[in-house]
Amino acid sequence: MTVAGARYDGHADWYDAWAxxxxxxxxxxxxxxxxxxxxxxxGLALDLGCGTGLHADVVRRHGYTVVxxxxxxxxxxxxxxxxxxxxxxxxxxxxxxxxxxxxxxxxTHTDVEDFGxxxxxxxxxxxxxxxxxHVGVHPCFVSPVAERLSDxxxxxxxxxTAGWQERTPFTGNAxxxxxxxxxxxxxxxxxxxxxxxxxxxxxxxRGGDAVPELLAFRLRRPExxx
Length: 226
Hints:
By secondary structure, this protein is an alpha/beta fold. Helix content is 27%, strand content 27%. The chain has helices at 5-8, 12-19, 24-37, 56-60, 73-79, 115-125, 175-179, 186-193; strands spanning 44-48, 65-70, 85-87, 100-106, 126-137, 146-149, 152-155, 163-165, 181-183, 200-206, 214-220. Strands 3-2-1-4-5-11-10 form a 7-stranded mixed β-sheet. A two-stranded antiparallel sheet has the order 6-7. Helix 4 links the parallel strand 1 (44-48) and strand 2. It is globular, with a radius of gyration of 16 Å.
């Protein structure tokens, strides 16, 4: 699975500062959605695609011990000040089956070429009864072809085309102008999220004013599953 590791290398300090300044509102919305979907529990939680570790405290508050995984060594340089970390691609985790009670992945589907592989690997490491929680930008309203207006969003040609895009007129001057974006139409994102061993059990649309900026969902492995 190709990931945006090299894309984020060299941007970690900027990204962490942005998340606490111009990006603070967006990050607060993502953290709130994560907080809403993470169940109370204990044991190991894996923050998959953890970046600089900005969401570890949210997961800890629910009772878990958090370990982060990311492919970007630069991002992990900061993340390890917030939790133990391992450098790994999302589709090839150095963890045994069923080891985690929870996997969270925040703002990652726009950074991986094969989101279905990330989901499958997350489900593989989940214990029976465990959950995968993903919080990402809403593919319908936050994308390389979505023009933000004062009263909504105008979608331009190209929404149905999945794949990497570099800077576009609508990616702004923040993260996506630096690392690009892997766009997935809604049908592709939800299809990638379907897994026979972990049914979808919650979906949220959050953030934004006229239209939601975030789409979040939770998958849960049944108790007693082997």
